[in-house]
Specification:
Layout: E1 5-8, E2 15-18, H1 51-68, H2 75-91, H3 98-110, E3 125-128, H4 135-150, E4 158-161, E5 171-172, E6 182-185, E7 188-191, H5 196-204, E8 219-222, E9 229-231
Parallel strand pairs: 3-4
Antiparallel strand pairs: 1-2, 5-8, 6-7, 8-9
């Protein structure tokens, strides 16, 4: 087993044995090619993960979780691991408790190396919405998220978590909760050019807009593999800044 790399602090002469790098995962970057700046890198949709890999990742997660609880390798730790491994054997997945879910969401943000806001990971508010079963309930959770996170302009970090894919496809088709529509014209685009595709999908589902520069897109929500539904966001949930070019 590797012992780590000794790092010397030249200010006080102390030595730190670094082992964190051993936990780093393999990326698609190389010595000659870095893809770290790509905003939306290509990735496989819904990749199938073998139960053996799920078990390995579960063991790593609960090691960090129980270490944070200061009861690593305790009877409580062992019991929970046995429960999780049994559940994985049964259905190739497992359910987190609410406390574990909150820890996992914050840990994921902390480890998101490309996010400049992750310094606030400990303050992330987690809305556990794994109980929802309909698109209407999902929409209400989205409104709850918007009201909490925007907070009249005093932004708060939040994440809303819906049921996992074992219970069907619970999806929000929009890339963002609040976004302007984009309309393709013969001479250019009205609105947000990056929203053309989602705008056309919304229109195909029956959305009728004013076709202005600043039309807020409706949310397209799909629950439990049912047909997607459209939901208009009430104005009171949307914060906009009136920006004008100087004259």
């Amino acid at each position: 087993m590797e012992k780590g790399i000794a790092l010397k602090n030249f200010q006080d002469g102390s030595i730190l044995l670094d082992t964190l790098h051993m936990k780093a995962e393999v990326t698609s970057c190389s010595e000659k090619r870095c893809v770290g700046s790509i905003v939306l890198p290509d990735k496989e949709k819904n990749p199938k993960i073998e139960s053996s890999q799920i078990k390995v990742e579960a063991l790593k997660f609960f090691e960090e979780y129980f270490q944070s609880e200061q009861c690593l390798n305790s009877l409580k730790h062992t019991k929970r691991i046995n429960e999780v491994l049994t559940e994985i054997e049964s259905c190739n997945s497992y359910e987190l408790t609410e406390k574990e879910l909150i820890f996992g969401a914050r840990l994921a943000w902390r480890n998101a190396s490309r996010c400049i806001g992750r310094i606030h990971w400990k303050n992330l508010h987690v809305f556990d919405c794994r109980h929802v079963t309909t698109a209407q309930q999902m929409f209400e959770c989205c409104l709850q998220h918007l009201r909490f996170a925007t907070n009249n302009g005093n932004i708060r970090s939040a994440i809303t978590i819906f049921p996992n894919q074992n219970n069907g496809e619970f999806r929000i088709w929009n890339p963002q909760l609040v976004r302007y529509a984009g309309y393709k014209q013969n001479d250019g685009v009205i609105g947000d050019p990056s929203s053309i595709e989602i705008t056309e999908i919304a229109q195909s589902l029956g959305w009728v807009s004013k076709r202005t520069m600043f039309d807020i897109l409706p949310l397209i929500i799909q629950a439990g593999s049912k047909e997607p539904q459209l939901f208009e966001i009430p104005e009171e949930y949307i914060l906009e800044v009136n920006i004008q070019h100087p004259v």
